Amino acid sequence: MRPHSFAAFFACLGVLLADFTPQWNKPLPPYRVISNLYYVGTNYLASFLITTPEGHILINPDYEQSVPLIRASVEKLGFRFSDIKIILISHAHDDHAAGCALAKKLTGAKLMVMDADAAEIENGGAGDFQYHQHWTPVKVDRILHDGDIVTLGGMSLVAHLTPGHTKGCTTWTMEIREGGHPYHVVIVGSPNVNPGYKLVGNTRYPQIASDYERTFRVLASLPCDIFLGAHGAYYDMNNKLKRLRAGGRNPFIDPDGYRAYVAEREHAFRAELSAQQQANR
Question: Residue 165's closest CA among 3, 7, 13?
């Protein structure tokens, strides 16, 4: 992604996060990313559907107001929303997780969340180190830990703890096959330092800087063919979608883009950390 695209993304993020943001919640026609992996999110909030013969997995119900849009996208693809058996999230911010309660109510699916984010989900957003969030509380059915595997219908997703953005921020990986070829899929939780985040002297999250450093080590270690993330802006979705619709090679196969994204985000983190350290001397 171009640096100015990141700048525009973060310019509005600090103001908009923790409040429903209508401009992030507009319908986007669903599409198949590859094999049995589909995009069912909004214009700005990425939600993914992994289909199997035994039911489906939904990653990120997004806002509560997003759930009807996600449901419409799932049904437009020819699947039943009620066949979703597992709900996962990237991290416990309202733009990815506030819809958990409604999605669970409509589907009866099991909600599975990384341990360090589970309390916020069950408390309706309360307890976040940065934001005053409010959503419908919902019970987490399975508490996940780093390296745990979620399985359904022959699909296995690995939960990688990539903390900093939230304490339990989760990057999901899986292997998917198409045309007899295996592809490593990475759905990045978030490595971003939001406006207002204190990386130095953060009494509500003392280890935030070391957690970010851990995240970049983990992300750099992951094999990646298919590069995805919690926001389409992370992986230049709009431009890739245009190329996908034009035919030819699948543009979501982008290992170089993944490595460049991780390196750029780490550079941004280290620059912000250095600036805050200088300011606190």
Answer: 13
- Residue 95 is a catalytic residue: yes
C-beta separation of 167 from 211 below 8 A: yes
Q: Report the first-to-last Cα separation within the chain, whole angstroms.
A: 34
The boundaries of the domain holding residue 164 are: 3-279
Total structural domains within the chain? 1
Condensed to tens digits (0 to 9), the pLDDT of residues 202-230 reads 999 999 999 999 999 999 999 999 999 99
Nearest in space to 224 (alpha carbons), one of 26, 2, 34 = 34
Q: In the chain, which ranges are continuous DSSP H helix?
A: 3-16, 67-76, 94-97, 100-107, 115-122, 208-221, 237-246, 255-279
CATH number at residue 224: 3.60.15.10
Positive or negative, the CA dihedral 211, 236, 255, 241 is positive
254 is catalytic: no
128 is catalytic: no
For residue 128, which of 101, 94, 175 has the smallest C-alpha distance? Answer: 94
Question: Which pTM does this prediction carry?
Answer: 0.93
145 classed as catalytic: no
Active site residue 231: yes
Catalytic residue among 56, 63, 96, 254: 96
Active-site residue 91, yes or no? yes
